[in-house]
Write a structure and sequence with these properties.
alpha/beta, two-stranded antiparallel sheet, globular, seven-stranded mixed beta sheet
């Protein structure tokens, strides 16, 4: 029997339009609470699953991105989604799902600040940053002080996403995806799908990400001014606008 992973849901079950949102590493479905609420207000049924190894879910047989993606297949087999959005590692999961999207029905795909290529040298710093965040155990107040555009609710969901996940999640997923290289998966995009990549402000790590994404064909890249990696907290309206833009064009 096929089981459906745990998920959060916004909007009416009878809505004719659907959106599918995939969270990132050390997070949970509620990272999208503002994006999901906005889409629901526009008449979408929004489904945001919790990935394996997150939000009290046990990990899968391994930590490969394709394993995380295949775990979500029951959703795509049960319904077609007009909008598919992924944040950070969740964007890599969405890239791994592109081959399963409808070949002829238009789908709006939005990837939020993914690091699709990280060298071994860069990964040393990336791993240390993630580990330090787990060890320091920031409070909601800490996150709000560091991120003035976040609401208290944003900060609380960020804290919970980390605390209810597995303490070894970062290392497990990094070690399970060597090399950390996912740009080749853009080639799996169906011709009917429109794909936008949202990138954090150039003052942060945006320049490096833009350099990689800008080389890809048939991909719209948008740098979000003043945004950090957490665009869904700081500028949720930009994500919604881009998702709807792809459908309306």
């Amino acid at each position: 029997m096929t089981t459906v992973p745990s998920a959060s849901q916004w909007g009416s079950p009878t809505a004719s339009r659907r959106a599918f949102l995939v969270h990132g590493l050390n997070s949970s479905s509620h990272t999208f609470h503002r994006v999901a609420s906005a889409l629901a207000a526009k008449g979408y049924l929004v489904v945001a699953p919790n990935l394996l190894g997150h939000a009290l879910r046990k990990p899968g047989v391994d930590f490969q991105m394709q394993t995380l993606a295949d775990d979500l297949l029951p959703y795509l087999q049960a319904a077609e989604y007009d909008i598919v959005i992924g944040h950070s590692m969740g964007a890599h999961v969405v890239l791994s799902l592109l081959k399963y999207l409808p070949k002829t029905k238009p789908t709006s795909v939005v990837l939020i600040d993914p690091s699709v290529e990280i060298t071994a040298e860069q990964m040393v710093d990336f791993r240390a940053k993630l580990s330090n965040n787990i060890r320091s155990n920031p409070t909601a107040e800490d996150y709000m002080a560091l991120n003035p555009l976040w609401t208290r609710e944003d900060a609380i969901w960020r804290v919970l996403g980390t605390q209810i996940g597995r303490p070894t999640n970062s290392d497990d997923h990094i070690d399970g995806n060597v090399p950390w290289s996912f740009s080749h998966l853009f080639a799996d995009k169906p011709a009917a799908a429109a794909l936008t990549v949202l990138i954090e402000d150039m003052r942060f790590n945006g320049a490096l990400k833009l350099e990689i994404v800008s080389k890809l064909k048939d991909i719209r890249a948008v740098v979000v001014p003043n945004a950090s990696h957490w665009i869904q907290y700081e500028f949720p309206e930009v994500i919604v606008e881009e998702a709807l833009r792809n459908i309306e064009e």
